[in-house]
């Protein structure tokens, strides 16, 4: 069983089915925190991508993650193949879904007040979740995949979380290379820095917005497709991760990819160590205390100003 927001402190200590020895407890918790932080960072990437370029807060982010979960689950169940094969398919599908959502809901109101965009993306979220619930029922599902753990020197690493961490790091590196080394990526960065200036030098802002929302949805799909590797899912699981994603994005700095990963790591470490050492849900209080402290001392976030 993997460490997640649903696990109690007692389960954290035996998350891979083997009680922790006192000499390895800290190292084991560090491993769990690193793995969980990578997952949270992956969840926040798509959210910060869309906001960093378009200044659109996408409330449908969690629902897009859930859609990817059910795409992978449906294809895997129908074919009998491992879910890992269908993760890229879900990412491509979510890119297309993102393009459609932007075309029919966001593009017509890009110049409207930001609260209009919030309401629209909230409506998209409700439509997606309701549609998934009607199509698949609210019953929890899980991937048909047998993942164990690997261990060395008394420290155990759940394979599902390890895969998710690798996916997260790969996504960050891949997007950084795309944004830094390609002409289209530089156009996206230019739009994020100054939309008016980018338009003045000939960048097609509308095209960049379509691409950005599609990429943000694809990253949401990547995160969503990876999460069932560590836990069961239902149509509503995206809400839990969406709340954490907003906290992470603000902590790391709005629009910053490295900031999203850093924010995810902070939340992961606080959650794992807090669940293990503190009673009840005190760790959640600590997370929001850190959140408030960062807002007071550094409102732009820890890596604010270093967009994408």
From TrEMBL:
The chain crosses the membrane at residues 26-49, 56-73, 85-106, 118-136, 162-179, 210-230, 242-269, 276-297. It is found in: Cell membrane. It holds the Pfam family BPD_transp_2. The lineage of its organism: Archaea, Methanobacteriati, Methanobacteriota, Stenosarchaea group, Halobacteria. Keywords: Amino-acid transport, Cell membrane, Membrane, Transmembrane, Transmembrane helix, Transport. Its main location: membrane. This is Branched-chain amino acid ABC transporter permease. It comes from the Archaea. The keyword Transmembrane applies. It is a multi-pass membrane protein. One of its GO terms (biological process) is amino acid transport. GO terms for molecular function: transmembrane transporter activity. The keyword Nucleus does not apply. One of its GO terms (cellular component) is plasma membrane. It comes from Natronocalculus amylovorans. Belongs to the binding-protein-dependent transport system permease family. LivHM subfamily.
């Amino acid at each position: 069983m993997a460490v997640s927001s649903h696990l109690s402190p007692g389960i954290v200590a035996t998350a891979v089915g083997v009680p922790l020895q006192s000499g390895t407890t800290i190292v084991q918790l560090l491993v769990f925190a690193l793995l969980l932080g990578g997952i949270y960072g992956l969840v926040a990437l798509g959210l910060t991508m869309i906001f960093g370029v378009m200044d659109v807060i996408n409330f449908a982010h969690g629902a897009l993650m859930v859609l990817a979960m059910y795409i992978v689950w449906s294809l895997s169940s129908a074919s009998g193949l491992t879910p890992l094969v269908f993760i890229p398919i879900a990412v491509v599908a979510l890119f297309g879904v993102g393009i459609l959502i932007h075309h029919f809901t966001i593009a017509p109101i890009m110049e409207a007040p930001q609260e209009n965009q919030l309401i629209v993306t909230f409506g998209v979220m409700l439509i997606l979740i309701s549609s998934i619930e009607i199509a698949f029922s609210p019953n929890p599902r899980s991937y048909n995949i047998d993942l164990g753990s690997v261990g060395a020197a008394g420290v155990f690493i759940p394979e599902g979380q390890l895969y998710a961490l690798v996916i997260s790091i790969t996504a960050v590196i891949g997007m950084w290379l795309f944004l830094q080394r390609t002409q289209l990526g530089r156009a996206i960065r230019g739009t994020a820095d100054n939309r008016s200036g980018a338009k003045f030098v000939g960048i097609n802002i509308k095209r960049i917005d379509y691409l950005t929302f599609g990429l943000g949805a694809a990253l949401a799909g990547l995160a969503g497709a990876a999460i069932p590797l560590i836990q069961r899912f239902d149509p509503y699981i995206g809400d839990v991760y969406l709340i954490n994603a907003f906290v992470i994005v603000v902590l790391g700095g709005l629009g910053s990819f490295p900031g999203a990963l850093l924010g995810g790591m902070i939340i992961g470490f606080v959650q794992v160590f807090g669940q293990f050492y503190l009673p009840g849900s005190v760790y959640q209080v600590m997370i929001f205390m850190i959140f408030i402290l960062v807002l007071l001392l550094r409102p732009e976030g820890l890596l604010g100003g270093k967009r994408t």
